[in-house]
Structure formats: structure tokens, C-alpha cells
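Dig into this one:

. . .
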Amino acid sequence: MTRRPVVEASATAVVAKRGAERLRRGHPWVFRSDVARAPAVPPGIVAVEAPNGQPLGWALWSPASEISLRHLERVPSRRPDAAWWHEMLGKAIARRAPLDGLTNACRLVHGEGDGLPSLVVDRYDDVLVVQLLSAGLDTLTDDIVASLRELTGCRGILARNDAATRAREGLSRDVRLLFGDVPSLVEVQEHGVRYLAAPWEGQKTGAFLDQRENRVLIGGLARGRALDCFAYHGSFALHLARTAESVDAVDVSGAALARVHEHATRNGYTNITPVEGDAFDLLRTWHREGRRYDTIVVDPPAFAKSRAALPAAQRGYKDINLQAIRLLAPGGRLFTASCSHHLSRGHFFEVLQDAVADSGRRLALRAFTGQPLDHPELIGVPETGYLKGALLEAMD
């Protein structure tokens, strides 16, 4: 019979009844208010017990964080050591096997979605970019790097530890090389399209990997005159350009649009036109001018970065979608998305309903999309999900 490792009382967190029930139901987070007795140890891995002394496994401990405990392992006898991390990382990487041959860039670890709370690992060809987003996890950096090197054979690992989340954990925010060499730009190949990711300075960990399948979806349907709003480096525009006659790629950043031009040249496309300006203003102007598009993509940044910002965000999402619908040609297709976690699927659908109603047009829902295979969203852990999209077709 396997025995539970002996753990000092000082290295054990006792959670309140509500926290214990939360863990039993499969959610990995225990908030500070639900810790009945905090462990008297620095950040790291601690044992977890229910109020009656029942062992609940192991968790990452972050003393300064509102999320004090992040559950790692239910089985008390399986203390998460270097071998445990190696096994769990290997399982996460294996789940991405269906993407082999389709792309050389994907998310290898999606935090809680892969049972590895507060850890993000993205692959760009032969380099990895990691984010260690909790104080407990940060202490395990060396074990994680060693396993990733062995499992992937990568040539370099970069820590993009500049996320605001780390400040709430009492951690420093920085970008630093953990192993080998990571260039400033890496070419991504995605379903026949090529673009450059910027691991050191780009948005997120260098590129927007979560929209990969949505880019393929609307790219396969694109025709006529196309519009990509909030284009950033033009990942959607590149897929649209394969079948559309022309693509206007709109972004407020001139530097981002310079990368759009570079990517168009890299793929041999001459039908992409970068357009600098505010998408809200431009779409209103083009509507007054009577302009129409056969294919439109609306992929804005997260308007709701907190629950308090949700009402204003809903107004913003409604406005930009209303403007896009007004520009949509009869029979045209619109793909629209939201990456705001605080805007639920239901609220997003309501926003679209309101925008359609105000436009006075008839639109059919052709698809409602979520996150791709490498960004797993767990049922019962809503924090693992944030991306939702809708493919609409103008019926008039």
C-alpha cells in the first residue's frame, strides 16, 4: 500500500469547508478567504487538508496572492516532484499531436486547462516562450525548464514574465532568457500561411495562436472585397488574401501595419492594403460613403479586462459589430470574436442580437466557435475559457 508522504504541519494548508468543496468539484483555486490555516512556509508546493483533516492532495502556495492555493494533485501519495512535472508536461504536449504538420506554432501548456495552474508554454518552431504566473510556480522554474528541454529538444526558452498577474503575486515583471537562444523574430507556418512571431516584444507571447482555426475558417469562405479590422500583424488578412480579390487591413498602429506589409510580401500577396486608423471611425465613414465588403473580420482586443469594465465593453462590442454589419454586402460573411473572459458566450450573443436588430438587417448564424485544441477550456473551470467567435451571413 502506497503511503502518504510525511508533511510537517507548517507546510500544510487547511482550507475552509467552502474551499474544500470547491476542490472536490474540480476547480483548482482556493481564495485567501477560504484558507482556514495558512502554511507557515515560503511560496512553493504544500499539502492541503479539509477542516476535518482529510487530505486533499497538493497545491501551489502563493502567500501574497488573492488566489492563495492552486490545486495540482488530488492523490496525497503523489507529491508533485520533478518526475511529476515531467509526466504532466509530457501529457500536455502529447495532446497537441493532431496539430503536427499543420503548424509549427501552438500552445503546449494552457495553465489550468492542462492541469498545470498558472503555467503557459507556447512553441514557436524550435523555441519556447513560457509564463510563470504564480509565486508558487515561480519556485519550480528550474524543474520545468529541464523537463521542457528534454521533452521538446528546443534550442531556447524565453520567460515572458511581464504579465500584470505576477505583480499581484508579489513577483517581479521581466522578460529573460532561461535557456539557449531565442531570436527576436521566428517564422510561423500555419496551414500554408507564413508570418513572423516576435517572442521578446510581441503581443501575448509573440503572436495570437488562439485564432488559428478561426483564421482558416473564414479564410476558406472569403471572397470579393474583404476587410480585416484590428489587423495587428495581419494574420487574418493573410488567410483572407488567399481567396478574396482584395483585403483592407485596418489597425491604429503604423508599426503593426508595416509588419502586415512585410507578411504580405513574404507570402507573395499583392492584394492586401494596410490602412492606418481607428476602426470605429473608419467604418462609420465608409458606411456614409456607401462602401460594401463581401467578407469582414472583427477581432478587437479585450474590451473587458475586469468585471467592472463589462458594461462599457458590451457597448463597444455592439458598436463595432453594428458598423461592420452595415458594411456587409448582401450574402456577405462576417466573422466576429471576443477575447474578453468577462464577456460570457451568452452576453456576446446578446450583443450580436442587439447589433443586428439596430442594423435592420437579417443575418444567419452559421457557426459559433470557441478555443482550439491547444487552448483547452475545462467544463466547471470558466477561467480556462475566454475566446468566442461567431460566423454570420447576410441574408438580404
Notes: The chain has a mean pLDDT of 96.
